[in-house]
């Protein structure tokens, strides 16, 4: 863990794992150990009903800005499978979390709990290499299939990080382009209208991000 990145005080109160990393509030503890791949029972419901930060678990002020930690591909359809967080919690996580800050790190699939399920929406099982912190005042929640999705509103700011540092616009663009084939395949299966809609979303996302990223 980098000692150069200030830790928000609410994160400093979280328990830590054997490596000294804070364990986010949403993480499940199994046999006394945190499994960062698994969401704790009832965490999503409590985050929604009690307005809790997804990372530190403390209440969010409904009048304050909220931040969604998303991959660059999610800037295309403006969807998050996770609830919002405090801006400082989201920024710290994007900079420090090993999976988010290490492009070559892969998500382990072995020995997942039998009742573990995939999040709602279409999940691209890859490390995008770049993490966005999408800061906004608005979003809406929709029930889809097996869960909830957050459709994020227009951002007041977008921060991009890679390898524990600010990401370049070129890195963000490369991350989006590397994930597009999977989305294009889905759109093509749905027909021409879906393909055209995806093309518009990509163009809009590129234009929007260009305004925030250097």
The tally of beta strands, per DSSP, is 9
Q: Helicity, in percent?
A: 25-40%
Major sheet: arrangement of strands: 3-5-8-9
Low-confidence stretches: none
**Helix-strand makeup class:** alpha+beta
Sheet-strand content, in percent, reads: 15-25%
* Overall shape: globular
Q: Give the termini distance in whole angstroms.
A: 26 Å
What's a quick, concise take on this entry?
This protein is an alpha+beta fold. It has helices at residues 9-12, 43-50, 74-77, 87-96, 98-101, 169-190, 192-210, and strands spanning 27-30, 33-39, 66-70, 79-80, 131-136, 139-144, 147-152, 157-162, 165-166.
SSE topology:
Layout: H1 9-12, E1 27-30, E2 33-39, H2 43-50, E3 66-70, H3 74-77, E4 79-80, H4 87-96, H5 98-101, E5 131-136, E6 139-144, E7 147-152, E8 157-162, E9 165-166, H6 169-190, H7 192-210
Antiparallel strand pairs: 1-2, 3-5, 4-7, 5-8, 6-7, 8-9
Helix pairs in contact: 6-7
Give an overview in words.
The chain contains 7 helices and 9 strands. With 214 residues, it is α+β, with helices and mostly antiparallel strands. The protein has a domain at 62-210. The strands form 3 sheets. The chain has a 4-stranded antiparallel sheet, with helices on both faces. α6 runs antiparallel to α7 (192-210). The radius of gyration is 17 Å and the shape is globular. It starts with 8 loop residues before the first helix and ends with a helix.
Question: Which key terms come to mind for this protein?
Answer:
globular; alpha+beta; 3-stranded antiparallel sheet; 214 residues; 4-stranded antiparallel sheet
């Amino acid at each position: 863990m980098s000692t150069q990145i200030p830790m928000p005080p609410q994160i400093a109160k979280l328990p830590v794992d054997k490596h000294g990393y804070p364990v986010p509030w949403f993480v499940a503890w199994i046999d006394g150990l945190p499994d960062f791949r698994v969401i704790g029972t009832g965490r999503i419901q409590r985050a929604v009903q009690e307005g809790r930060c997804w990372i530190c678990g403390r209440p969010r002020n409904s009048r304050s800005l909220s931040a969604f930690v998303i991959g660059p591909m999610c800037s295309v359809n403006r969807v998050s499978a996770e609830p919002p967080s405090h801006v400082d919690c989201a920024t710290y996580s994007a900079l420090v979390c090993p999976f988010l800050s290490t492009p070559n790190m892969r998500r382990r699939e072995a020995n997942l709990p039998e009742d573990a399920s995939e999040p709602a929406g279409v999940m691209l099982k890859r490390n995008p290499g770049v993490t966005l912190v999408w800061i906004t005042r608005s979003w809406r929640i929709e029930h889809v299939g097996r869960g909830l999705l957050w459709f994020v509103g227009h951002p007041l700011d977008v921060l991009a990080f890679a390898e524990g540092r600010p990401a370049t616009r070129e890195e963000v663009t490369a991350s989006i382009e590397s994930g597009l084939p999977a989305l294009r395949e889905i759109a093509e299966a749905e027909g021409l209208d879906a393909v055209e809609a995806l093309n518009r979303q990509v163009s809009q996302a590129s234009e929007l991000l260009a305004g925030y990223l250097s």
